[in-house]
Amino acid sequence: MARKIFIWIIFYLATIVAASSAALWEIQSYYFALEQPFFAPPAWLFGPVWTILYIFIATIAYRIVMAPQSHLKPVLIALWTLQFALNTIWTPSFFGAQNLGIALIYISALDIVVLGTMYLLWSRDRISFWLAAPYMAWIGFATALNAGFFILNG
């Protein structure tokens, strides 16, 4: 049991480390300097939502790694790793480079990878599928938000 908890903690810490890279940029000043789409949520909402989503993302990784061996397990591990990389690179693209177009490309790719992961999870691990559903909903919304920022701010 302790080993399983340790493995889950490793995945959760990885998500926290990736998320903490946001501290490298002046997120608040840049975000509020942009012309906001009419549907932009209040800034305070991002922290709680991402905290919950990171728990879900770590749990999905844990469940994939701990699942019995199958021909799709390496594919699911690769897809999880790819979505994690795309999720992580979005922040420096949007806030660091301040390149709304490149950030939109990364988050659109993230949408596709998460949808593909969900497709494979549906028949293999419904719990992970349902953990991925709010993540997909949020990044779908974030994609629309990124597109709104890109349209309004160029």
TrEMBL record:
Superkingdom assignment: Bacteria
One of the GO biological process terms: tetrapyrrole metabolic process
TM segment ranges: 5-25, 45-65, 77-95, 101-122, 129-152
Pfam families (alphabetical): TspO_MBR
GO CC annotations on file: membrane
Cellular localization per UniProt: Membrane
Alphabetically ordered keywords of this record: Membrane, Transmembrane, Transmembrane helix
Main subcellular location of this protein, as a coarse class: membrane
Entry keyword annotation includes Transmembrane: yes
The keyword Metal-binding is annotated on this UniProt entry: no
Database matches in CDD domains: TSPO_MBR (cd15904)
Membrane topology label: Multi-pass membrane protein
InterPro entries associated with the record: TspO/MBR-related_sf, TspO_MBR
PANTHER family found in the cross-reference section: PERIPHERAL-TYPE BENZODIAZEPINE RECEPTOR, TRANSLOCATOR PROTEIN
Family: Belongs to the TspO/BZRP family.
Protein name stated in the entry: TspO/MBR related protein
Organism this protein belongs to: Maritalea mobilis
Taxonomy of the source species: Bacteria, Pseudomonadati, Pseudomonadota, Alphaproteobacteria, Hyphomicrobiales
